[in-house]
Specification:
Structural class: alpha+beta
Largest sheet: 7 strands, mixed
CATH class of the largest domain: Alpha Beta
Shape: rod-shaped
Distance between the termini: 42 Å
Order of helices and strands: HHHHHHEEHEEHEEEHHHEEEHEEEEEE
Helix content: 40-55%
Strand content: 25-35%
Number of domains: 3
Radius of gyration: 36 Å
C-alpha cells in the first residue's frame, strides 16, 4: 500500500475530495437528501460485491456506476438548475449585501400575523432564504412593494384576486403576491391541517425559506421551516424565531466562494474521508496486480490399464493477474491445474501446459504457466514405477 501512496495519489485524492465536497454542498443547499441515500446505497453495494466476490451483483452494479452521472442529471435536473442559479446570483454579492429583514420588519410581520389571526383572515407569507424560488413557485403577481401591515391585510382580503395565494418577500420587499406553492410531499402530520399548512411546508421541504401561516378556521399562527410546522403561541415567540432566521440569513449572505472555502468544516472532513475510502476500494483494492503461486498438478481420466509412473515435475508456477482485492481473497483450492490424460498413450509423452489447463474464478486471468511442458511416463498397471513422484490424482 505504501508503494501506491505517492504524490500522484495525494493529488488524485485531493481532486476527488473537492468534487465530493461540491456534491455535499449541493445536497445540503438543495436539500436533495435522496441523492445522498442513493449514492451511498450504490457505493455500499459495489463494496459488498467486491468484498464477498458477488459476481452477479458486481456485473449489475458496474453499468449503473458507469451511467450514474447521466441518471443523476436526468433525475435531479431541477435541483441542479437551482443550485447553479444560486452560484450565479451569489457571485456578485461579495460584500455589503443588504440584510433582508431587520428587527423593525420582523416586529411588523409578527404584529400583522397575529392581527390577521384575531380577524380570522387566512394567509401565507414566505420569507425567501439564500436560494431563489422561481423554479418552485408558480403564478403570482409582481408587486415590489414596501412591507406594511395595511398592504398585507389588503392583499389577503377575500375580495382581491390573489388572496388565496402566498406573499413572497425578497430583499426587504414584497416581491409577489398570489403565489402558488408546492404541497408538502410528506403527508404525515397534516391530517388535521388545511391546504395552506401543507403548502407552507411544501416550500420549505426543498429550500431554506421560512413560511408564516394564519389559519382562518382556528385563528392560529404557525411557522414552517425545513419541512416542519409548529404553532406559535404569541407575538414575542414569533419575533424571536424571525430574529434567529434573519441573523442566520445575514451570516450566510456571502459569495459561494466564501461559503465553499471558509465554512462547512465538517463537510470538508467528510469529503476527504470519503475520497480516501473511494481510493482504497476503487483504486488500491481494484488495482491490477500480478502474483506468482505454486500449485500441484491434478491428473484426470487416466486410461484404464495404465499407471502414471513418472512426471518431470509435481508442481507448476503460475502467474495470475487480477484486481488486488480479488487476488488477496483467493483461498487454497480456488486455482487448480487439471491435466487431462484421456488421450495419453503408454510410454513417454509430453503434455503442453497452457493457461487453458488452469481453472479458477472468472475474474482471475492466467498470464503464464511454468514449466510450459510436462513430461510423463505411462506404464501398464502392476509395473513398478521408475521414479517415486508425489502425485495429486483425481480419478473422476
Amino acid at each position: 500500500m505504501s508503494s501506491l501512496f505517492n504524490l500522484s495519489v495525494i493529488i488524485d485524492i485531493t481532486i476527488v475530495s473537492l468534487f465530493v465536497y461540491l456534491l455535499l454542498i449541493f445536497i445540503k443547499q438543495t436539500r436533495s437528501y435522496f441523492i445522498f441515500y442513493t449514492l451511498t446505497a450504490v457505493v455500499l453495494l459495489n463494496v459488498l460485491s467486491s468484498t464477498l466476490n458477488l459476481s452477479l451483483t458486481r456485473k449489475i452494479i458496474a453499468p449503473v456506476i458507469t451511467s450514474i452521472i447521466v441518471i443523476f442529471i436526468v433525475v435531479f435536473q431541477r435541483e441542479i438548475r437551482r443550485f447553479f442559479r444560486w452560484l450565479a446570483t451569489s457571485r456578485g454579492q461579495l460584500n455589503n449585501r443588504l440584510v433582508q429583514f431587520d428587527e423593525v420588519i420582523s416586529s411588523s410581520l409578527s404584529t400583522v400575523m397575529f392581527d390577521m389571526a384575531k380577524k380570522r383572515v387566512g394567509g401565507i407569507i414566505v420569507l425567501s432564504g439564500e436560494y431563489p424560488l422561481d423554479d418552485i413557485i408558480e403564478g403570482g403577481f409582481s408587486l415590489d412593494g414596501k412591507i406594511s401591515a395595511p398592504l398585507i391585510i389588503s392583499i389577503f382580503d377575500d375580495s382581491t384576486p390573489g388572496h388565496d395565494g402566498a406573499i413572497l418577500i425578497e430583499n426587504r420587499r414584497i416581491a409577489k403576491f398570489g403565489v402558488h406553492l408546492p404541497l408538502a410531499e410528506n403527508f404525515k402530520g397534516f391530517s388535521d391541517m388545511g391546504t395552506r399548512h401543507r403548502a407552507a411546508c411544501g416550500i420549505t421541504e426543498h429550500t431554506d425559506a421560512l413560511a408564516l401561516v394564519v389559519s382562518e378556521e382556528r385563528g392560529t399562527v404557525s411557522i414552517a421551516q425545513n419541512g416542519h410546522i409548529k404553532t406559535i403561541k404569541d407575538k414575542e415567540e414569533l419575533e424571536e424565531i424571525l430574529h434567529s432566521f434573519i441573523k442566520t440569513e445575514h451570516a450566510s449572505q456571502n459569495s459561494w466562494w466564501t461559503v465553499f472555502v471558509e465554512h462547512n468544516f465538517t463537510l470538508k472532513v467528510a469529503s476527504l474521508a470519503l475520497a480516501c475510502v473511494f481510493w482504497f476500494f476503487f483504486v488500491y483494492q481494484a488495482s491490477i496486480v500480478n502474483k506468482e503461486i505454486v500449485i500441484p498438478f491434478e491428473f484426470q481420466r487416466l486410461p484404464d490399464g495404465l499407471l502414471l509412473s513418472e512426471t518431470s515435475s509435481s508442481t507448476a508456477s503460475i502467474t495470475i493477474s487480477g484486481n488486488n482485492q480479488d487476488i488477496n481473497n483467493l483461498k487454497a483450492g480456488d486455482i487448480r491445474i487439471l491435466v487431462n490424460l484421456r488421450d495419453a498413450k503408454q510410454g513417454r509423452s509430453t503434455v503442453a501446459l497452457t493457461p487453458e489447463v488452469v481453472t479458477g474464478p472468472s475474474y482471475v486471468k492466467v498470464v503464464r504457466v511454468s514449466p510450459a511442458n510436462l513430461n510423463i511416463v505411462l506404464l501398464p498397471s502392476g509395473t513398478p514405477p521408475a521414479t517415486t513422484t508425489l502425485l495429486y490424482l483425481d480419478t473422476q
